[in-house]
Design goal:
D-Maltodextrin-Binding Protein, domain 2, alpha/beta
């Protein structure tokens, strides 16, 4: 019997994602034996400060990648938005699952819509991307950094420490908490993070057997959309903890990409959009990134680094 070992973080959301991948593998190959190997990452241990101040890049994946190199696991399951823009030599994205709802969610016990909040309302989020967009559009609100897993954040909301939270719809759905979403935020209000809503599977490039099992799980449309978004992020030399947003949509044979880079305080936001052939997602991402850089995005990204 062939055994596949899936590396995963220990959070409820990460475990759901790993269990989902296990179910997909067994659905196609019932004779497989699939184990979950739970690993604590640096990002899980840092709870006392914003992730951007801790370096940002790879905080949720380094230990999983080391386990791949060591041969302790055969594949690692990630929220794709946590993945670094470049992967270590010898590793690759073996499969990208079909994307779930990529939008941000407005979550509140008392208010139905983001627009309904009173002046001075406290909104919790750990994302600089969300913070910069909220501060720019709603300067009357008090946007506060909030760490912890989804259940921890919801508990603080329910205890009255916050008037609302901004979370990812996909994460709430996967945890069986879709009913907590009061409003799905239009990307025009809160442009999603790079690859938000997508799950990816990382493996050793030379592990032909494991890659063979994973190949049927790959969703071509999601891979192309996220490839454009990740190429933009790479060209900007960004990371998942910086105030960078990008969202690609496929319409027929044309890929459409919207992106922004913001000042963490929301004083300035640069936006760009464009389209290109579906077969060339990386070229589209690089082109839109260069447009943003030509308009001053580099200075905003550097400012975010200094602020952290």
């Amino acid at each position: 019997m062939t055994t596949l070992r899936i590396g995963t973080r220990k959070s409820p959301l990460a475990l759901w994602q790993a269990e989902h991948v296990r179910a997909l593998l067994l659905e196609r190959t019932p004779s497989l034996h699939v184990e979950l190997i739970k690993i604590t990452t640096e990002g899980d241990r840092i709870l006392d400060r914003p992730l951007a101040s801790a370096g940002g890049k790879g905080l949720f994946i380094k230990e999983l990648e080391q386990a791949l190199f060591d041969g302790r696991i055969d594949l690692a399951v990630h929220s794709m938005k946590d993945l670094t823009v470049t992967l270590p030599e010898g590793l690759h994205i073996a499969a990208v699952l079909e994307r779930a709802d990529p939008r941000d969610a407005f979550v509140s016990g008392r208010y139905r819509r983001l627009d309904d909040l009173p002046a001075g309302a406290r909104i919790g989020t750990s994302s600089l991307r969300r913070q910069c967009q909220l501060r720019a559009r709603f300067p009357r609100y008090d946007v506060v950094n909030l760490r912890g897993n989804v259940n921890t954040r919801l508990a603080k909301l329910d205890a009255g420490e916050f008037d609302a939270l901004i979370l990812a719809i996909a994460g709430l759905e996967r945890l069986g908490l879709r009913q907590r979403v009061r409003e799905g935020l239009d990307p025009a209000v809160s442009l999603p993070a790079v690859a938000q809503g997508a799950i990816c599977i990382e493996s050793r490039r030379d592990d032909a057997a494991t890659n063979g099992y994973l190949a049927p799980l790959d969703h071509a449309q999601t891979r192309r959309c996220t490839a454009a978004e990740r190429a933009l992020n790479a060209e900007l030399q960004g990371g998942c903890q910086l105030p960078i947003a990008a969202y690609a949509e496929l319409h027929g044979d044309t890929l459409h990409l919207r992106a922004l880079v913001g000042d963490p305080e929301g004083r300035e936001i640069l936006q760009a959009a464009g389209h290109g052939p579906v077969a060339e997602p990386e070229a589209l991402g690089k082109r839109i990134a260069k447009e943003l850089l030509a308009r001053g995005a580099g200075a905003l990204i550097e400012k975010a680094h200094r602020r952290a």
